[in-house]
Amino acid sequence: MLEKALVGDKRYWTWVISLMAVIGIATLFYLRQYSEGLGVTGLGRDVTWGFYIAQFTFLVGVAASAVMVVLPYYLHDYKAFAKITILGEFLAISAVTMCMTFIFVDMGQPFRIVNVFLYPSPTSMMFWDTVSLSGYMVLNIIISHVTLGAEKQGIAPPKWIKPVIILSIPWAVSIHTVTAFLYAGLGARPFWMTAILAPRFLASAFAAGPALLILFCLILRKVTKFDAGREPVQTLAKIVTYAMAVNVFFVLMEVFTAVYSGIPEHLEHFKFMFLGLEGNSMMAPWMWVSSILAVVSLILLLNPKARRNESWLVVACIAVFMSLWIDKGMALIVTGFVPSVLGAVPTYVPTVTELMISLGIYALGLLMVTVLYKIALSVRGQWVSKKIVETQRSPVKAGS
Amino acid sequence: MGIDRRKFFKVSGLTALGLAGGSVSKVFSSEDSLGTVAPVRPEGPLTAQRWAMVIDLRKCHEHADCNDCVTACHTTHNVPKWENPKDEVKWIWKESFEHAFHDQEHPYQQESLKHLPALVLCNHCDNPPCVRVCPTGATWKREKDGIVMMDWHRCIGCRYCVVACPYGSRSFNWRDPRPKIQKIQPDYPTRSRGVVEKCTFCDERLARGMLPACVEACKYGAMHFGDLEDPNSNVRELLSERYTIRRKPGLGTNPEVYYIV
Ligand code: SF4
Ligand code: SF4
Hints:
The structure holds 2 protein chains of 2 kinds. Chain A is an all-alpha fold. Chain A contains 15 helices and no strands. Chain B is an alpha+beta fold. Chain B has one domain: Alpha-Beta Plaits (2-Layer Sandwich). Chain B is built from 10 helices and 10 strands. In chain B, a hairpin with a 6-residue loop joins β4 and β5. Chain A binds chain B through residues 36-39, 43-46, 48-49, 106-110, 112-113, 115-116, 118-119, 121, 123-127, 130, 182, 186-189, 336, 340-344, 346, and chain B through 2, 84-88, 95, 98-100, 102, 129, 131-138, 154-160, 162-168, 171-176, 192-196, 251-253. The structure holds iron/sulfur cluster (2 copies). The site of one iron/sulfur cluster has 14 residues of chain B, from α6.
């Protein structure tokens, strides 16, 4: 099926080559980081994990959110998701790849990563995270390959795939739960040591992931012949609404516990995040933007009229995605280190190198999404770009 | 790989015994004169069931500008010296009391405590979170004497242990440390960039029958090192006679470095 990705019109190739160029530039930055060490990042003694690990955490959520289309379709036989299930699975595969790449670039000795498998350490949550993420990747590759292959031949997928799909549902929940356990079990870091971390991770994932999927569906409708249809997009919108509401509720519960108890080691982190601590208020503006975006998105989503209007829905989805990206992709990890275990208030600003490498990894993810979506839609003969359709050329089959 | 290296250490420790015989007796006598007798066996490695340290902060305060222990440790172990605090690598250092004992400080504390620094190092916790989180077993608690060890050849540099240590005891090599080592000691390994390091209670010296470098360097008898399981040891004696505190005892890590304040 891969050959479907190798043929395409000019627009397709311009996009693919631009992404490759970004990846190429990022690789140069990575080579510099590799030869000089992680000292070229903004990380240091006090803030030991930063932008990379935060992106990893956020993207595990995006990967897990595929379950929000897989579950209704396969468990409840919700036919409206028939067309987009594969998009969810391919998004998951791309997101897991990005996660793994972010971990790779964060390692001090990346080529020793095999040691995780050579000396399996079941007491380490990082070991379990590796196991659950790789397993999830394999599951999604098998499922998408088999179902799409069957679709290509116009036959029903083989029976044995059903239990594999069912297994992928709790597995999706597990990847984000174990990722939360990476942080939630550390006595050294009171900010993360809260039982609600995993539920909160899941809620924010189930809002951000489907929001992204809605955006992808609408983009595909614009640039290809593929139309997800109104119903699946609206159902996804409802999922985003519920998940976002639950997420905001969970955040407020955390704020209450920290503020009302007034225990400094919990409170100080929240102070840093929203107000600033000892003159360091680098996170506060971001958190306020995130909070405002969350409120705006909820106002739009909870109002059925706005939600049903696709232009407003786009605004709401962008707001949800940005709000949660700031929350998880910037604030959550760094705030765990401020104040530090010794009570210092360090500053951390990602360097250009760090940002460029991250951008490259996102480009890699987008490239995978593009190629995989192209394959999926080509198989269904829906890839043909709008321009060609509109100019009434003979409807060439699937960019081939 | 790591196992082989550990074995190698054992063997090299044993062969080094012959060479180190002279210095052992020197250590022994200098310790004797301070009256903090550790269970020294001049003809063999120093052993214990549970190594522990007692630091007398009052003595440190009397000699506030003394930095001998830190210098001794860092030169013995090829610890680099970075100008930028964010790149810093340190095994033992002076931290302000309010930072070292974050939860026990109050605004009206004795002036001496408030401003005078406390020596901090890896606590060789009995229940070490750093060991629990390591995905490769590159850091582990040695069963025979409780020392929390590091294998720099197995460490993948994920820094999970740095995140999990509640005391900031671990350092990551953000850059290649070698150019920043003032004088490389050939008998101790240097590290490469991208791995974590920390105090190991001088396991390499214990194997040669010598006390930790910091304890040996302290001229004022502020540092005591001994076996916690031996009821007659120097550390047990101090712990039963003096009021001592530990850092963040509420976390259940069971630090094995005790402070007399
Ligand atoms: S002080 Fe930190 S590094 Fe040392 S044993 Fe305890 S947790 Fe581990
Ligand atoms: S940095 Fe090294 S020692 Fe620390 S947890 Fe990772 S692999 Fe283990």
